[in-house]
Design a protein that fits this description.
Layout (H helix, E strand, L loop, with lengths): L2 H8 E5 L2 E4 L16 E5 L3 E6 L11 E4 L5 H16 L3 H15 L6 E3 L2 H7 L5 H13 L3 E3 L5 E4 L30 H8 L1
Antiparallel strand pairs: 1-2, 3-4, 4-5, 6-8, 7-8
Helix pairs in contact: 2-3, 3-5
């Protein structure tokens, strides 16, 4: 069964043009694809990552990282700044996203949140019914949230929100006029073959 047909089988109805799901459609089924093996050079605070099977350094280029320890407030601020930059959400939808994210942070292991105009207006200054519904619709259309059968209960798309404690912003650079590099063998692989 394809991923699309699995998601369609979870739809139990529709409300105002938005699908209602019996389960969270963003949670993968029990069959997971084989993960690529990775080699991490450095520590868990600083280094770079490369793919062991292909010899590529991360996604076709070098990925260098360095983690800085920050408090909860700064962590949430960075996460929301990243969402703002890459999601294209309007200001109202971003404010509602923040309410959802903060609620999710207190519910480890959960993929559902309770959201209503009352909850949103307690958290967001100037939130009215019209802004709330417009922002909620945007989060539903962008599949950041999914409508559940229960009123005011929404499934959270686990691809957009997480309860993790690490966050990285990656900006890539590519040389002008560069072509894709051919795969090279690692010395480590040659040593394994000779043993």
């Amino acid at each position: 069964m394809s991923e699309n047909s699995q998601i369609k089988s979870l739809i139990i109805g529709e409300k105002q043009g938005v699908s209602i799901y019996k389960e969270n459609p963003s949670v993968p089924n029990a069959v997971t694809p084989n993960k690529r093996r990775r080699i991490q050079v450095g520590s868990d605070q600083r280094g770079f990552i490369l793919e062991k099977d292909t010899g590529e350094i991360s996604v076709g280029g070098a990925t260098f990282y360095e983690f800085e320890e920050v408090d909860d407030t700064k962590f949430v601020k960075f996460f929301l700044a990243g969402v703002k930059q890459f999601s294209g959400l309007t200001k109202s939808a971003l404010e509602l996203f923040e309410v959802v994210y903060k609620q999710l942070q207190s519910k480890h292991g959960e993929d559902k949140i309770v959201l209503s105009l009352l909850i949103a207006s307690d958290e967001i200054e100037g939130m009215n019914e019209r802004k709330y519904h417009r922002a909620l619709r945007e989060l539903l259309e962008k599949e950041i949230l999914f409508r559940s059968p229960a009123d005011s209960v929404f499934f959270v798309n686990i691809r957009f929100m997480f309860n993790g404690d690490r966050l990285a912003f990656v900006k890539g650079y590519r040389r002008k006029g560069s072509v894709t590099q051919q795969e090279l063998k690692f010395i480590e692989q040659e040593e394994d073959q000779s043993q």
